[in-house]
Each structure stands twice: as structure tokens, then as C-alpha cells.
Amino acid sequence: MENLILQALNGLASASTLFLVASGLTVIFGVSRIVNFAHGSFYMLGAYLAFSFVTHLPRGHLGFWGGVLGAALAVGAIGVVVEVLLLRRIYRAPELFQLLTTFGVVLIVQDLALLIWGPQDLLGPRAPGLRGSTEVLGLRFPLYELFLIGVGPVVLGLLWLLFHRTRWGTLVRAATQDREMVGALGVNQRMLFTSVFFLGSVLAGLGGALQLPRESVNLHMDLSIIAEVFVVVVVGGLGSLSGAALAALLIAELHAFGILIFPRITLVLAFLVMAVVLVIRPHGLLGRPQEAARGTGLAEPVIRAAPLALKWLGLAALIAAILLPPFAGDYALTVLTDMAVFILFAASLHFIMGPGGMASFGHAAYFGLGAYGAALAVKWLAAPMGLGLALAPLAAGLGGLVFGWFCVRLSGVYSAMLTLAFAQITWSIAFQWVELTGGDNGILGVWPAPWAAGKLTYYYLTLALCLGATLILRRIIHAPFGYALRAQRDSPLRAEAIGMDGFRIRWAGFALAACMAGIAGGLFAYAKGSVFPTYLDIPRSVDALLMVLLGGVQTLSGPIAGAIAFTGLQEQLSRMTDLWRLVLGIVIVLLVLFFPQGLAGAARSAWEARDARPDA
Amino acid sequence: MTGLMIGRRQLMAGVGASALAAPWIARAQGNVIRIGEINSYTAQPAFLLPYRNAWILAQEQVNAAGGINGRKIETIFRDDGGRPEDAVRMAGELLNAEKVALLAGGFLSNVGLALADFARQNKRLYVASEPLTDALVWSHGNRYTFRLRASTYMQSAMLVEEAAKLPVKRWATVAPNYEYGQSAVRSFKELLKKARPDVEFVAEQFPALGRIDAGATVQALAAANPEAIFNVTFAADLTNFVRQGSTRGLFERRKVVSLLTGEPEYLEPLGDEAPEGWIVTGYPWSQINTPEHTAFREAYQRRWNAHPFLGSIVGYSTVQAIVAMLKKAGKVETEPMVEAMSGLQFQTPFGQVEFRAIDHQSTMGAFVGRTVLKDGKGTMTDWRYADGRNYIPPDDVVRQLRPQA
């Protein structure tokens, strides 16, 4: 019994940390609608800065607590710099586009932290006055954990006062509900956004700084917390502080008790909770349906047939892709094969994101299901390559049908996070079911059949299948089904009114995209010769998202341009410099600033501007 | 730390320049032997930067001494970012575009396995330096893959020898939830049960790698009230586990047996909170005074202005193995090189080591000892060198474990 109570206390201490970081994220999202990937980086910076401050300031209460607060404020300042220099310029960009920038910031911070603080884990000093432990029910419990348990509610209380007892707080709440109306009433939105970003970053920094007496400061802190915090925010309901508190409590306590009953479940527990909560409550525990943002952007541009010049350009690229490779080396062929695979992968995600209007943070699930479908067939049935490649889209499509049935009922970020939850659940199955999938050691020996073993043959096979599938997707967008898909995106009510079943259309679109991603995954498996859980892990989903956003969501050639640009950049940079993350991050940030509609979107604007000039 | 960072910057300049200048070098000096090295540098810098420093040092020493029969060696480093699929792509790049003679490297087990399977498929030599998984030489072992570091099984076996002597019966285990942690726990349990049929395992914890919920994990272990704990966590997980464990008194009156914890990579970040009296495998770098280790340590400190880590030993020894192999083979074609690797005897800072012909595992061992605090820092005491060859199953068992070769 004592043990159970202590385990509950452990859960409370973790909940406090989770809540601190999540509260910052949810406040930022509520007002600015930015999915801030860099929030985990702010958390990590908070910890590193606190380490530097505390170890350089004189020892004692003032040095320690001063250092912690100083670190939180410094992170707030960094947040303001990011907001003013980067995010402010692209508030009007399409939804989720800011995500690209914040991901660039993540990459930059990772390398800067390595350069400044070095590769070794750092262990900060313990908090003065809270070093030891006390007896709780005859068992020892660290004082600092008790202190942390107190911090959560205190911060929640202070935030509540701030939001309910000050004019600024009232404005923030108003902006969370309807930011256009707040703007129309003459409130300076810029100041509001910047100050909210400051507050959110301070909270992330504080969360990180308070870990100093508890955990080592290391370079993996950013990514290890960000997914979990997103889960907390979404489970609680986007923009809801009390929701975040409730969700942090729920997840941390389930974690603490899960460890007692089934330790291995901790790998995926948070995502399981999220999946269950979102299926039952589509807007999180305490969230409200999101008000549609009004007036921020025009209706999505109508998709027209490609202009003649673009058709010629595409044809020229295709001819080059067919005629040149025989003269290229083996390695160039490998890269081209990868590119073809990623073009299809990006195009399949674009299909649901652009025309479908549904974001997905877990598209790697279908890529991975395809790869595993092929690899499992090889491992357990000794299937020939043809069968393996046929099973890939089947496995992925089935996954898409099942997961899609839940995901397409939701909207916006909730739907995207549910796809992430399913992707992580799939990942954990691949990771933990060692007997079937080989666990993280993966499945080896998935090599192409002898006739396709040559790099050139395999490249042509990949090119044919990927390009064929991409063109089919393009064709579908122009077909009646594509029109229906776009209709339910642009105006669900009107689409329903003329007898279209939005749910079924989205569901079919989702499954189709999953199928296509499966083809890409199957081809990728045979190209690499092995399959690993990394194929369905979060970074792979993020890659797909980056490709689509980089290329431009609202153009059909966007994913193609994005996939080529992203794979090309990453491949070149990682060969050229150790600091490839830093350079890639900077490139992404610059691209976002200069091409807020994505590469293909910018090209189209330039093209249309050129066309329009004679009329003007 | 500063020394290390300066080293890193110089190194990056060097690597960048060599990557850009590479085609010229290849054309200008056709007789350079190139080695392709792939590792998770951005994902695991704490282990791998000292590793690469030592690699560079070894290479400089070999070249200064006239190279291999007059031919210099050159290494092209690649970062796989911890993704096996990227490692495989880079392996192709190194072989086809950079024309390397052989592949080396690997930190994570799955990257090692992916590279090994790539080597098998393409019939090229791969010298795995660090990946610990048993599968690399046994269930997935192949003709073209050789592994330097003592495997999970071997290191577990070293610890079981000590654990069996302890007067305790109730054991608990804590290990990161991935292949390395799972197989370490499996080997430890099997071997300990064999040595001491009277022991029982009363609890096991598998926290997610890098995301341990240390307080709750410690509490759950304490609730099972074991007499001894077998720990496999390392790096940040270890630090958090130790901090929560010592504050809550988990380690008091309990024996702890711990894999890798004696390695400076993981012991040093703990500072004066390093636990005392744990039985660990590791590397007491300051206390090993054999001639070959002293020479290595002094050369490393001169070159990088920092003390060597275990990663440094692994990097240095890998180059020594490759050099010995090249000298023995006399050619830089795959088949003669593979022949030369089998049964190869070579010098390392840990002494003479052999690549076993039967399973391509090297006999490099590890140091087993107890942790102790000295001058506010953790280090090892009462240590001995456990020679790897004593901790590998008998040949007939190995043949069963490696049926395909």
C-alpha cells in the first residue's frame, strides 16, 4: 500500500514537469495556432542555460534559484527573437507552414548546443536545501520531488490569475477564442503574439531548468520531451490550460503505475492514451471545437491543368530521368532511387494534405507498413520480390483503412495527432514484437530478385512504379473523386448538402494515400535490403511533412519539388560537413522566409505574376 | 572538455577539406588505401568523438611510420544520424563514389546489422567496431563481417562470474527497452541460473531508452525488495537512475552489478555522485600501465589534450586491426582481406587480440572491477582484465549459434 501511494507521488512529480512544458505549448498554440516543434528545444536550452548559470554563480540559494529563473527568462528572450525574426513574418502562410520554421530551429539548436556545451552529459548540482529525502509512510522520498509536486499547482494558479485577473490575460483568452475579432477591435496583435510567445518559452525554459537537480542535461532532451508534451496538450484539448494539467496528471500517473504492472508499455503508453481519448472525445478532454480561422487566407486556389511550360518542364525532367542514369555511377543511382521513392511518399501525403485538407503527422506508418509487409513476406513466406512488392500496398492500405476510419472523423491538429498516435502504436509493435519483426534489429536480407539486383534495373523499376503511382494520384485529383475530395475540404456543409458523404470520401482518400505510401515503403525496403522500426518512426513522418511543406501544399508539383530538394540537400550536406543539421536548419528557415508558399508555390506565383503583367 | 572541442573543430575542417578534395587526392595519389567509416556521430557524440579522435591518431601514426608497404591510409567519415537505412546508403556511396577498400564503424546494433547484411550482399569487407549485438557474429553472422568489441553476451558473462560469487539470491534487473537491453538481461539470467540454480529474479524494469522515468522505476524496483540489481542502463538513463536511486536509498545494503558503467563515458558525468561498490565492466584509463596502454594514453593526450575514453580504445584498435590485416593480406582486394582477417593477431592498447576464425568475433576483453570515488570522481578499483576468449561459448555451441557459416 505504501508503495502504491509513493508511486502516485512519483507520478505527481512527473506530472508537474510535463504540465510546465505543456502549458507553454498550449498557450502559444491557443493564440497563434502555431504547432511549435521548437518547444522541446526551448526546454533543453532552459536546462543547459541553468547548468551554465548555476555552476558559474556563487553557491547557495541565490545562485541556484537565481540561475534557474535567469535561465527561464533567457529562454523567453530567445523565444521572442525567434518569434520576431521568423514566425511573425509567416503568420499568413498556410496552416502548419510555421511548423517547418520551428523544425529548422530544432535542427539549429541541436548543433549549437553540441558546439557550446560539448557531447558529454552534464550533471548539475542539487538544489540547496532540497538535497536529501524525507520519510513518507516509512519510505524515503526525495525532497526535491515534493517541491516539484508543489510547483505544478502553483504555476497553474499563477497562470489562472494572470489569465483571469489581468487585461492582458483577458485579451489572450479572447484571442484564443477568436483572434480575428480581437484584431478587429483594435488590439495590437503583434504585441500580444510576441508576449504570449515569451510566456510560453519562459515556461518551457523553467520546465527544463527545474530538471537540473533531477536529471542529467543532455543533447537528447529536446526530442525526448516534445512528443510527450504534444500528447499532453492534445489530450487536454488545444489551448486549454486546465486540460493540459488534467492530461499531464493522467499520463504521468498511468506511467507510474504502468511501470509496476507492465514495464515495457512505457514505450507507447502516452500514445495509447491519446488514441483512446481522441476516439472518445475528438477535441481532447477539455478542449472546445476549434473556431475556423477567418480571413487569414483566401480559399485554397483552384487546381487547374498544368500550364504548357510546366508540362514541357516535366517531360524534359522525365526524359532526363530515363536517359541519363545509364551514364551515372552506382551511387548516383542509389540516390536517384531514394528520390523516386520519396517523391511518391511525399505525393501520397500531399494527396491527403492538399486536396484532402487533412494533415497527417504519422504518414510513416504506411510507408513502414509497406516495408514491413514486403519484409515479413520475405522472412516468413520466402516470398519472391513480385509478391513482396504486391503485399506492400496491401498491408499499408489495410492499415490506412483501419486507422483512417478513426482519423478522418476528426479535424485539424487533432486528426493529425491521432494519425501520429496510430503511427507510434504501429512503431511500438514493430519495435517490441521481437519474435515476429526482429524488434529494433529489424529484418535483414530483403534484397531484390536476381533480375532486378542491378542498380540500374532496380532504379528503372522504382522510377516506373513511383512515377506511375504519382501520376495516378495526379489523375485522381483531376477526376470526379478529386473534385469531391476538394469540395468536402473547402466547404463541408455545401458538399454534404449536394449529397456527398464527406466521411466516406475522406476515408477512401486516406486509404488510397496509405496504399501509395506502402508502394514507396516496399520499394525502399528492397533498395536497402533491410527493414527497421525507424521506417515508421516519427522522424520519417516529419521528413514527409517537411517535403510537402517545403514544396508547397497547394500545388501538385509541390511534393515532387519538395522531395527532390529535401533528399538532395540532406544527402549533400551530410557528406560535406559534420554540422549538417545546423546548415540544413538554416537553409530551411531561409527557404521558409523567402518562399512562404513553398518552392513550387513560389514558382507558380512568379509565373502568374509574369502572365498578369501585360494585362495590368 | 575544451581540449575535446578544439579537437573537434580542427577535425571538422580536416574532414570537410578531405571530402571536397577527395577526387583530386584519389587521382593524384593512386596508391592511398581508403577506408570508409560510418557512424552515428550526431546521434551519439559522447562516445564517438573520442572514438574518431583516436582513429585519426592511429592513422597519423601509421602514415608517419611509412604507411603499409609504402602506401598511406586515408579514412572518409560519414554520419548516419542513427538511421540504418542512411548507413546503407552511405556504404554504397563510400564503395562506389569514394572507392574505399573496406567499410568500418557502426555504434548502434541495428546499424551494424544493416551494414553487415549490405557487406554480405555486396561481398565487401566490413569491420564492425562497436555494435554489441550477438546477432552480428552469430545468428546473422556472415563471411564478410568481423566485430571488434566484446559482445553483449561476453560482457554479461564477465559480470555473471562475479555475480555468482555474491551471497545473494533475489535479483532484479533494469535495462533499456531495446535489443541490447533485452539480450543483456536474457544472457545474464540464463548464465547466472546455470552458475547458481538457487537464484530467483523478482522484478524486471524496461524503461524506454533515453526516457527513463527514474523515480517510478526506482520505486518499483525497491518495492520488489531484491538483494541485488543487474543494471544495463547507460548514459542519461544511468545518471537519472543513479540520482533517484541514491536519494531513495535503493542501493543501500544491495549489491549492484552493472554493464558498461565503468566506462569513463558514463562514469564521469556522474561526478561525485558516482555510486560506490558497483561491480562493473569498464575502462580505468588512468590506472592501466602496461607498456602498450601507456604509450597509447600518452600519445592520445599529446594529440588531443584530453584523456582517452573507451571510445578512443575502440577507434584506435579498429585501425590497428585494419592495418595488421592489410599488412598480412598484402593486397587491397576483398577476398584476400577477408582471408587475412580470419585468425588475425593484432596489437591493441589492451594487448594482443585475435579475430576468431570460427565466428569472426575478436577476443578483445574488458576490465571488470568495482566502482569507487577518488577525489570527487568515480573510477574503478580492484579491477582485472577479463580476456574475451574466456567468455565465449565452446566451439560446438558457437557453430550451432552460427549455422549459416
In short:
Chain A is mostly helical.
Q: What this model shows, in words?
A:
- The complex is a heterodimer of chains A (616) and B (405).
- Chain A is mainly α.
- Chain A has helices at 2-32, 39-56, 61-85, 97-117, 143-165, 167-177, 179-184, 189-209, 221-236, 241-261, 269-280, 308-323, 330-353, 364-381, 385-407, 412-432, 434-437, 455-478, 480-490, 492-497, 502-528, 538-551, 558-576, 580-594, 598-612; strands at residues 133-136, 139-142, 443-446, 529-531.
- Chain A contains 25 helices and 4 strands.
- In chain A, the strands form 2 sheets. A two-stranded antiparallel sheet of chain A has the order 1-2. Chain A has a two-stranded antiparallel sheet with strand order 3-4.
- In chain A, a hairpin with a 2-residue loop joins β1 (133-136) and β2.
- Chain A has 2 domains: 2-230, no CATH class; 308-610, ABC transporter involved in vitamin B12 uptake, BtuC, CATH 1.10.3470.
- Chain B has helices at residues 2-28, 45-64, 84-96, 109-122, 152-163, 179-195, 214-223, 235-247, 264-267, 291-304, 310-329, 334-341, 395-401, and strands at 33-39, 73-79, 102-105, 126-128, 145-147, 170-174, 200-205, 228-231, 255-262, 279-282, 345-348, 351-354, 366-374, 377-386.
